[in-house]
Amino acid sequence: MSLGPRLDLRQSQSLVMTPQLQQAIKLLALTNLELEAYIGEELDRNPLLDTAPEEPGDARVEPAPEVSASGEAAGTDQLIAGGDATADAPLDVDYGAETFHHDSASDSIGSGASSAAASGDTPDFDSFAAAEASLIDLLIEQAVAAFDGAQLIIARHLIDLIDDSGYLIGDIADVADRLDALPEEVAAVLAVIQTFEPSGVGARTLGECLAIQAREADRYDPAMACLLDHLDVLARGDLATLRRLCGVDHEDISDMIRELRAYNPKPGLRYGGERTQAVVADVFVSRGRDGWRVELNNATLPRVLVDRDYYAELARTGTKATKTYLTDCLISANWLVKALDQRASTIVKVATELVRQQQAFFEGGVHHLRPLTLRAIAEAIGMHESTISRVTSNKYLQCERGLFELRYFFTSAIQSTGGGDAVSASTVRDRIARLIAAESPDETLSDDKLVEVLNAEGFDIARRTVAKYREALGLGSSVARRRAKVLEAAI
Q1: How far apart are CA 429 and CA 459, in angstroms?
Q2: How far is the C-alpha of 355 from the C-alpha of 285, rounded, in Å?
Q3: Which of 131, 176, 128 is nearest to 153 (CA)?
Q4: Would you call 276 exposed, middle or buried from its count of C-beta atoms within 10 A (0-12, 13-18, 19+)?
Q5: What is the DSSP letter of 407?
Q6: Residue 287, SS3?
Q7: Looking only at Cα atoms, what is the longest distance across the chain?
Q8: Quick one: CA dihedral 21, 22, 28, 33, positive or negative?
Q9: CA–CA dist 361, 369 (Å, integer)
Q10: Which among 113, 393, 424, 461 could disulfide-bond with 106, CB atoms 3.0 to 4.6 Å apart, if both were Cys?
């Protein structure tokens, strides 16, 4: 066999992810708020993209599905598989014929609240909110007013060792050695810091934190001090031992426990942290005359259009480089508008099938929730399971029963003991919560007892599963619940 260069022609198939296809897949997983930010970036980057002004009365819209050449509705899978990113064909969408819903008074503004926000015409009211002061900033401000010189240096070092809950996580001896100071000096500075706001800050233990708050409330007497020294006995619910140790009667111990409940065991958590972000629904479900109605929440999204007049004007007078740039912008704009419309259509299609599958939940509540998987929805609407996963990721549904994540409706199945239909795991968790909420203080239900009750009601469930569901609900064991009920009865 001779060695030498030669040319071969081979034919093979491969899956290539173009930037347009990657964009379509990315848009499916974005929430409405994330999509709004993404559209804002595209508006700044592409001169051919513009937002359509909304008429008074406009609000959310249920987009019509895109129709393929065969006359059937094209899904996202078909769009990704056969989409032509170079096609310059506008979507067949009549925005003027769509029916919108008022989500708020701002929807009636002529320019549209969301569109104006995207263009910067309206003020961002969130920007007026002052930054929330952190716990460290608050303590340093008080330390500057209370100390100076070497004491201020010690105070700043101690404040740096205070965690988010307000507890000192360092040791006085270590701080004194590090700063070349006497332990008595560090302890004196710490004693002053423990008088700062919030009450209880700078404590090293839970008992010390509660003792600081008791002193400020003028409730720190020998009996209270004894109670704080025996918090482990209080946690066990042994009130008889507590009365004997503190030397008080039943009424006094009840008053002391009631006083402790009013204190904050983690005073630092009231300060700092990130600003809470409100969850905005992506889909609205409402009851109509002919059944349930599914609508997209377009109140947070500007309506994107392609400015073809601007393209035609520049293409007539521009240079070759300008025309090439405008062609790229036009292709990108057309694909974005097409992908946005297809995203809306896919979300509505998935949500509609989800509502159909879980109709009993919307009518009767969580105990009617059925077992459901992503594959079941995918097979029902003719899409791939990965597409359903992206559509339901970080999306929220607003209905008469509240705000739910779309993933909430996908639950595992619990078999029935009588051979009947399987029930949802969420239904079982709800039933466990109801049984525990209705139990009496004298008869708390153990996990074994819960299994017996659930089996008698037709749920084929094991003890370890009951324990897992109970812990997921944040409910303690039967012993812990019995202690808590004893303490509640005592006060």
Answers
A1: 11
A2: 8
A3: 176
A4: exposed
A5: G
A6: strand
A7: 106
A8: negative
A9: 5
A10: 113
Pairwise CA distance, residues 430 & 473, whole Å: 9
What is the helix (H) or strand (E) element at residue 23, kind and residue range?
Answer: helix 19-29
In the block, residue with structure tokens 């139990």: 439
- The candidate with the shortest Cα–Cα distance to 20, out of 351, 342, 385, is 342
| Rg (the chain; Cα; Å) | 32
Dig out the tokens for 152 from the structure.
């201020």
pTM of the model: 0.59
Residues 6 or more apart from 279 whose CB is under 8 A from it? 396, 403
Does an H or E element contain 142, and which?
Answer: helix 135-146
CA dihedral of residues 172, 174, 179, 180 (deg, nearest 10): 100
**Helices and strands (H and E) in the chain: how many:** 22, 8
CA 475/CA 224 separation, integer angstroms:
29
The closest of 46, 36, 18 to 334, measured between CA atoms, is 46
Residue entry with tokens 């992908």? 339
Cβ–Cβ under 8 Å, residues 196 and 142: yes
372 touches 350 (CB < 8 A): no
Report the C-alpha gap between 258 and 101 in whole angstroms. Answer: 50
Specify whether the CB–CB gap between 158 and 120 falls below 8 A: no
| Spatial separation of the C-alpha atoms in residues 487 and 213, rounded to whole Å | 21
- Which residue type sits at 49? L
Residue-level pLDDT, tens digit, the chain, 491 residues: 567 788 888 888 877 777 777 777 888 888 877 888 888 888 898 888 888 765 544 443 343 333 333 334 444 455 444 444 444 444 443 434 444 444 444 444 344 444 444 444 455 555 545 556 788 888 888 988 888 888 888 888 888 888 888 898 888 888 888 888 888 888 998 899 988 988 889 888 888 899 999 888 888 888 888 888 888 888 877 788 888 888 888 888 888 888 888 888 888 888 765 555 677 888 899 988 888 888 888 787 778 888 888 888 888 877 888 888 888 888 888 888 888 888 888 899 999 999 998 888 888 888 788 888 888 899 998 888 888 888 888 889 999 888 888 888 888 777 766 666 677 777 888 888 888 888 877 778 888 888 888 888 877 788 888 888 888 888 887 777 777 776 666 66
- The answer for residues whose C-beta is within 8 angstroms of residue 378's C-beta and 6 or more apart is 384, 385, 387, 388
Please, which residues bridge with residue 287 across strands? 292
Looking up tokens 């910067």 gives 120
Helix (H, G, I), strand (E, B) or coil at 386: helix
Which tokens hold the place of 259? 């006083």
Decide if 103 contacts 297 (C-beta within 8 A): yes
